[in-house]
TrEMBL record:
Pfam family, one: Radical_SAM
HAMAP family xrefs: RNA_methyltr_RlmN (MF_01849)
Protein name listed in UniProt: Dual-specificity RNA methyltransferase RlmN
Domain Radical SAM core: 168-398
Subcellular location field: Cytoplasm
Top-rank taxon, per record: Eukaryota
A GO CC term assigned to this protein in UniProt: cytoplasm
Main location: cytoplasm
Statement: the UniProt record of this protein carries the keyword Cytoplasm: yes
Length: 428
């Protein structure tokens, strides 16, 4: 077996991670509340219909005006308050899939009075939509989108279409980011190499799904919080976005997955909300020593404690935990690693599933993708020990679809100037 990469000195990172984890746990201690004017930066997107009705009342309008705002945001997909000035023709969704999403919809929402529009603008409200800065589409249809945020930072979101020939149906999965960059710096991940800037606000997570729907002219059926960032370090915004996806965009909770590499105390906090969504835990190694070389933050969260929290999560929610395991050639892909992983999972009792991910190569990385026969041998070793396992189909290899790759081509710092040009769509 090849030697593991040099040990990463993680003591300062571990201390910082423990402090950040304590703050994240405190923020997540209470059930998620609807966005307020303070924590949403006055973005309308992400607010519920009751929130919007109350906003209308606060600005001297009748309650039903809030319902109009709700329709404009989630059905017409208006991007600016200035677009509220007429019975706006419904967007792409009307022509292609709106009747499927909202069967009761027969016409666009009515105009919002000028006085209400001016009051919204005067109070500093915006819709909360960002322009597409760049997009690439791979030969398999996977499309990665860069959104340019208000502070000129770029975030990635990925649309993954899947046709189910047996059922005659199609799915569209949105892989959404929760942070601008990531502070955890997993050794194989392009996002960590691009640095960390800040957490995303709830509306900045929600708008990623809307951007994908517009790009594909198809409703998103599944959401995975597996893009840039560590969702558990921004749990409050993630939970608010989750609520919006479920309640406003009508995406079932069981169609959503929240991923984490492991942040102390947060899995317990997530379990307390008793969501019907899947928790995906990124292991990437079957023992603590090897895991620390791959995931530096693992030093602050011993593997035994992580597995205990996963066991408690299953017992409290009844939801099976999915363990993500990226296979790195010569590092963690030997048969012995599979056997050790099986022993580790048995400590969780039941309710586990392993999702193997053959490494998606990134430029400048020392890691390599394992051969197919090595992947199959790993699968066979797990199945021989009665471990449920699947191999994730690699998508978008020719579109730099691994987290952070496309963003790193464009920026590690905010863009210096804004652009009003059309998004750069590059088929490859």
């Amino acid at each position: 077996m090849a030697a593991a990469p040099p040990h990463v000195r993680a003591a300062p990172l571990a201390r910082a991670l423990r402090a950040r984890a304590s703050a994240a746990a405190a923020a997540a201690a209470a059930p998620p509340k609807p966005q307020s004017q303070e924590n949403s930066r006055r973005a309308l997107l992400g607010l519920s219909e009751p929130d919007l009705r109350q906003l209308a009342l606060d600005l001297g309008q009748q309650s039903y005006r809030g319902k109009q705002l709700h329709d404009l945001l989630y059905k017409s997909r208006a991007k600016q308050i200035q677009e509220f000035n007429h019975g706006q023709a419904l967007s792409f969704l009307h022509a292609t899939c709106l009747l499927f999403c909202f069967p009761q919809t027969t016409q666009g929402p009515c105009a919002v009075p000028k006085a209400f529009r001016e009051a919204l603008l005067g109070a500093g409200w915006t819709v909360g939509r960002s322009p597409v800065h760049h997009a690439v589409t791979a030969s398999d249809g996977t499309t990665k989108i860069l959104l340019k945020l208000e502070d000129n930072r770029l975030i990635e979101t990925v649309g993954i279409p899947v046709d189910d020939d047996n059922k005659g149906s199609s799915r569209l999965t949105a892989c959404v980011s929760s942070q601008v960059g990531c502070p955890l710096r997993c050794s194989f991940c392009a996002t960590g190499k691009g640095g960390f800037a800040r957490n995303l606000q709830p509306h900045e997570i929600v708008e990623q799904v809307l951007a994908i729907e517009e790009m594909f002219k198809h409703r998103v059926t599944n959401v995975v919080f597996m893009g840039m960032g560590e969702p558990m370090l921004n749990l409050k915004s993630v939970l608010e976005a989750h609520r919006c996806f479920n309640k406003e965009l009508k995406i079932g909770q069981r169609m959503m997955t929240i991923s984490t590499v492991g942040v102390p105390n947060t899995i317990k906090m997530l379990a307390s909300h008793k969501l019907q969504s899947t928790l995906a835990v990124s292991l990437h190694a079957p023992n603590q020593k090897l895991r620390e070389t791959i995931v530096p933050s693992a030093k602050s969260y011993p593997l035994g404690a992580l597995m205990d929290d996963c066991k408690s999560y299953f017992l409290e929610t009844g939801r099976r935990v999915s363990f993500e395991y990226t296979l790195l050639a010569g590092i963690n892909d030997e048969k012995e690693h599979a056997e050790e992983l099986a022993d580790l999972l048995r400590t969780c009792g039941g309710g586990y599933h392993v999702n193997l991910i053959p490494y998606n190569p990134i430029e400048g990385s020392e890691f390599k993708r394992p051969y197919r026969k090595v992947v199959q041998a790993f699968v066979d070793a797990l199945e021989a020990r009665k471990i449920t396992v699947s191999v994730r189909q690699t998508r978008g290899l020719d579109a730099n679809a691994a987290c952070g790759q496309l963003r790193n081509e464009f920026q590690k710092n905010p863009l210096l100037e804004s652009s009003t040009s059309e998004p750069n769509l590059v088929p490859v």
